[in-house]
Specification:
The protein is of the alpha+beta class. It has 4 helices and 10 strands, in the order βββαβαβββββαβα.
């Protein structure tokens, strides 16, 4: 099987980011971003998505975390798109429900070639530590736009914002794993159009 790996660098006036990804990895994560809570969430994606994911980022954190979080989402999206290639043989669709104590979230992904994020979550708190919960949306929006994926992220219940975010990222990792897996019964691209 061809290696499904990618290394993407994104350098702007606001951030400098390098992402290394192996879709057929073993769940190893390595993160140096300056945003500890995001690193905790990315570790969930690697572990539960069973992908190897490395993110090195330097951003304008003296302003706030927004540019860094969004641009990491963008760069991971670019890496996933590159690693998937023409998407021949993949399952294309993935979904997962993940609980953590009182919190429960559902994520559904389609590597459709059509970027779209639909996210429904009511955050009990504006911040988890020094991480603004609104940045979760920015991460997933950046990912969708550059992975060319349709993503539905729904928090179904929860009272603790840390738990809510963690269920979202764990479910995202598991849905990503399912959608990116090779389906031994699928011949070619999983679309009647013949391309995604």
């Amino acid at each position: 099987m061809t290696e499904r790996t990618a290394e993407i660098s994104r350098n702007t006036a606001e951030t400098r980011i390098t992402v290394r990804l192996n879709l057929d990895g073993s769940g190893k994560g390595s993160f140096k971003t300056g945003v500890p809570f995001l690193e905790h969430m990315l570790d969930q994606v690697a572990r539960h998505g069973v992908v190897d994911l490395s993110v090195d980022a330097e951003g304008d954190l003296h302003i706030d975390d927004h540019h860094t979080v969004e641009d990491i989402g963008i760069t991971i999206g670019q890496a996933v798109a590159a690693a998937l290639g023409d998407k021949a043989g993949i399952r294309r669709y993935g979904h997962a429900y993940v609980p953590l104590d009182e919190a429960l979230s559902r994520v559904v992904i389609d590597f459709s070639g059509r970027p779209l994020l639909v996210q429904h979550v009511s955050w009990p708190d504006a911040m988890v530590g020094r991480f603004a919960t609104t940045l979760v949306h920015e991460f997933f929006q950046g990912f969708c736009n550059h992975a060319h994926a349709t993503l539905h992220v729904d928090n179904l219940r929860g009272a603790n914002s840390h738990h809510i975010a963690e269920t979202m990222f764990k479910a995202f990792g598991r849905a990503l794993r399912m959608a990116a897996e090779i389906d031994p019964r699928m011949c070619g691209v999983p679309s009647t159009k013949g391309q995604l």
